[in-house]
Amino acid sequence: MAVEEIKSWIADSRNIVFFGGAGTSTESQIPDFRSATGLYQTGSKHAFPPEVMLSRSFFMERTAEFFDFYRACMVHRGAKPNTAHEVLAQLEQTGKLRAVVTQNIDGLHQMAGSEHVLELHGSVHRNYCMGCGKFFDLDHVTSDETMVPRCDACGGIVKPDVVLYEESLDWDILSKARKHIAEADVLIVGGTSLTVNPAAALVGEYGGDKLILINQSSTPYDSRATHVIRDSIGKVLKALVS
């Protein structure tokens, strides 16, 4: 019954927004963070927990160790878009989906063909010299796994354009995401625990009555959702737009 109602909402809407987290990419073999098999639960060879190693202070003080962890756990060169990414790209092409707001840094939405993507936490595919601002692609960061990546122009450290703990989100991107969500007819939230702010709080900007929450576990926003679906995001999205 829920699926049929949501399908009718999608058919009638020209202003759908998707807000997604790490669970959107787990079917692309990229681990999430907080599930039983997630990055924060399974541990690693590293001496510090992921929350510490992904902080600004750790990056500045232990740069080589940061990149050792970052390359091993945060960069997934072989990952490909899954059904969820593909369905969202197709929905955008029909003119119904206005924006994808994502907490992910893997770039899989763009790889699938989505153009209107707001990356709240940045992207592994963008890297900048902290000295002169020169841009570098992912290859520059991953080509030598024993070295801290350096700028070939000024010698500065090349930092991934990802938002670390202790860093603020890009205000312009956050503002655009807030506006899209506030104005949406239908808001689909998928694959996120909705526990990390300020990103999670964006769902609170939605004032409509067509909030669909697709996640394997409960979230703080379940009671506010019109429909809560506990299933694979790719499977659900494919059913909703078929």
UniProtKB/TrEMBL annotation:
Cofactor note text: Binds 1 zinc ion per subunit.
InterPro entries tied to this protein: DHS-like_NAD/FAD-binding_dom, NAD-dep_sirtuin_deacylases, Sirtuin, Sirtuin_cat_small_dom_sf, Sirtuin_class_U, Ssirtuin_cat_dom
Species for this entry: Paenibacillus elgii
Reported function: NAD-dependent protein deacetylase which modulates the activities of several enzymes which are inactive in their acetylated form.
Family of this protein: Belongs to the sirtuin family. Class U subfamily.
NCBIfam families named among the record's database cross-references: PRK00481.1-1
Gene name of the record: cobB
GO cellular component: cytoplasm
Binding of nicotinamide, residues: 33, 105-106
Binding site for NAD(+): 22, 26, 33-34, 103, 105-106, 121, 192-193, 215, 233
Cellular location(s): Cytoplasm
Residues annotated as catalytic: 121
Pfam families from the UniProt entry: SIR2
Deacetylase sirtuin-type domain span: 1-242
Protein name: NAD-dependent protein deacetylase
Co-factor requirement: Zn(2+)
PROSITE patterns assigned to the protein according to its UniProt record, in alphabetical order: SIRTUIN (PS50305)
Principal cellular location given in the protein's record: cytoplasm
Binding-site list for Zn(2+): 129, 132, 151, 154
A GO term for molecular function: histone deacetylase activity, NAD-dependent
Reaction(s) catalysed (UniProt annotation): N(6)-acetyl-L-lysyl-[protein] + NAD(+) + H2O = 2''-O-acetyl-ADP-D-ribose + nicotinamide + L-lysyl-[protein]
UniProt KW keywords: Cytoplasm, Metal-binding, NAD, Transferase, Zinc
Domain of life per record: Bacteria
EC nos: 2.3.1.286
